[in-house]
Design the sequence.
């Protein structure tokens, strides 16, 4: 690795990596990364003062003493250190990407595999060019299997993250209308996500394939994948499943081609059925028993505001405002339409990174929301506001305006869907629901 061996030796002696002085751990390595509005080189002295063992910098002006390690570029040093560390570990690494459901699927896989193995899974959404290296540097000699989430908003990004994480196994959850701006349209999304399959083919890796998804089957064939394990609803798969119940939590039966099993989960939303099957097929592949698989699935409780059913003093709220794109929005609307409730309310916020398709996609979501047959529709954000036309429902340019409306009107005794892109910060509305 071009990062010196001495840097790896420092890492072995001080295996905690920090990039933010607000969360410095004692005896950590502090990497002084640059952002659009900051240069962490200027925080080097503070990091040492707060207990960092060493700081990695790329500006000699901020070097204080031998605890400052000067490199040509801090981000590159972090990435190369992570790649080198990964190469020292002879363990299965499951690379996971997709337009929707990545994080929930990752959490499910982790919950189930943990019934048998010491499993590491990406924390939160540390799934980009900084997050993946930080995830890899969290792997220890005790880790038996790693699940590394990979996000992307442009082509060649998954390819680069694969070079760092070197997955031995991989899964693409689905292909949807996400990050259209950066990928250059839907075909660009397919091409970008397929970089995981290309890597697996080149390195003799195994892919888990959802046979119900035509786009993924097409990408499997295009990549020439031969080491494949299939899952879906048909009985010709390694793992097949049937959704039995969706209201309010998912219940399903699944088969390993020998016997049938039933499991109750704490997840809401029929769109999570395929995510659950993915966790089953991967866990089955790695030798877990049906009892271990069902224990992991039934014990998993969603958090981080993804498909999370919360009972408040006034309502039952489907908290799904961690992120949104047209595909996940349509699935969420179909879900609330299928659930039984006397009163239903849909509160949805703008979807970001849709480029030239923003107006058309927001109009489409308004039409889908109208079809859901709910009592109250509330749309929040500039994109929705610009295309409101003669549509029914309440339209607000900002969450602050929606907040005023909710304070005045009040929503009670309802099933509420709260969903929007992360940047809309819809969690500020939750106290009013």
Sequence:
């Amino acid at each position: 690795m071009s990062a010196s061996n001495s840097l790896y030796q420092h890492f072995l002696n001080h295996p905690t990596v920090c990039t933010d002085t607000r969360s410095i751990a004692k005896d950590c390595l502090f990497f002084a990364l640059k952002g659009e509005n900051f240069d962490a080189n200027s925080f080097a002295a503070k990091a040492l003062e707060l207990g960092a063992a060493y700081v990695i910098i790329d500006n000699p002006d901020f070097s204080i003493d031998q605890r400052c390690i000067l490199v040509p570029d801090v981000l590159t040093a972090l990435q190369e250190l992570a790649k080198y560390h990964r190469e020292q570990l002879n363990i299965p690494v499951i690379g996971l990407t997709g337009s929707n459901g990545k994080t929930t699927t990752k959490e499910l896989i982790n919950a189930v595999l943990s019934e048998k193995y010491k499993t590491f899974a990406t924390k939160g959404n540390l799934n980009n060019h900084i997050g993946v290296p930080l995830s890899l540097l969290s792997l220890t000699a005790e880790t038996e299997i790693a699940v590394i989430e990979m996000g992307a908003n442009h082509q060649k990004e998954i390819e680069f993250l694969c070079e760092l994480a070197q997955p031995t196994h991989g899964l693409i959850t689905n292909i949807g209308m996400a990050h259209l701006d950066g990928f250059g349209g839907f075909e660009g999304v397919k091409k970008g996500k397929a970089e995981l399959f290309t890597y697996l083919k080149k390195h003799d890796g195994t892919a888990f394939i959802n046979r119900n998804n035509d786009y993924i089957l097409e990408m499997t064939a295009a990549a020439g994948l031969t080491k494949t394990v299939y899952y879906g609803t048909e009985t010709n798969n390694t793992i097949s499943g049937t959704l039995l119940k969706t209201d309010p939590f998912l219940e399903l039966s699944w088969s390993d081609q020998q016997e049938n099993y039933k499991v109750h989960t704490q997840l809401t939303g029929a769109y999570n059925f395929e995510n659950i099957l993915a966790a089953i097929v991967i866990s089955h592949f790695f030798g877990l028993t049906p009892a271990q698989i069902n224990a992991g699935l039934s014990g998993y409780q969603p958090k981080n505001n993804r498909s999370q059913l919360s009972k408040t003093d006034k309502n039952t709220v489907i908290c799904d405002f961690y992120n949104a794109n047209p595909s996940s929005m349509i699935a969420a609307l179909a879900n609330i339409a299928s659930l039984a409730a006397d009163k239903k309310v849909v509160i949805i916020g703008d979807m970001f990174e849709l480029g030239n398709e923003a107006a058309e996609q927001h109009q489409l979501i308004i039409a889908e929301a109208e079809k859901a047959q709910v009592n109250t529709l509330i749309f929040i954000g500039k994109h929705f506001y610009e295309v409101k036309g003669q549509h029914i429902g309440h339209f607000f340019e900002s969450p602050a305006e929606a907040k005023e409306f909710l304070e005045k009107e009040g929503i009670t005794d309802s099933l509420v869907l709260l969903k929007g892109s992360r940047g809309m910060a819809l969690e500020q509305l939750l106290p009013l629901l």
